[in-house]
Here is the input.
Amino acid sequence: MPVATIVDDSAQHMRKAVEHVQQQLAKVRTGRASASMLDAVKVEYYGEPTPLAQVGSVSVPDARSIMIQPWDRTALQSIEKAILAANLGITPQNDGQVIRISVPPLTEERRKDIVKQCKKMAEEGKLAVRNIRRDANEELKKAEKTEHFSEDERKRGEDDVQKNTDKYVAEIDKILAAKEVEVMEE
Here is the structure.
């Protein structure tokens, strides 16, 4: 396998690891209302677990509330049960037309706990990136023997993989820093 292919493949895997961290951090609850808080909620709709977004429209009228307007009013109770079952620390209020959710402000202690969770997720992402680097370097060493390319080419490939590793680890740090600011602000 050519050096460039190994480097490109590893960069692609690293990008996916960064995207995964970004998705994980997006699900973390901050003191602010966000429709993405409800992404993991599955509603029992006609006997099938269905994503909430497919059962109704989710909107965020202000920073402290979420509103769910179901397409079918008969699903109101199912939506309410699904939100409670998701154990998100929020309580839905059903008024017969829509479901409103008030997002309470977080305590300082809770914010610090959330930041710790975020740091742990980011560290797992960085570890994944480093593991991809290790695998790519091993592939380069194997390919050097089987493909018979020079040691200089392998070293150049390892340097490129390291540059990508540094770039994606820095990107994870940047995403984490932005999330920390978001969590800690009132």
User: Anything to note?
Assistant: The chain has a mean pLDDT of 88. The helical segments are 3-27, 76-85, 108-147, 151-184. The two ends are 52 Å apart (CA to CA). The longest strand covers residues 56-62.
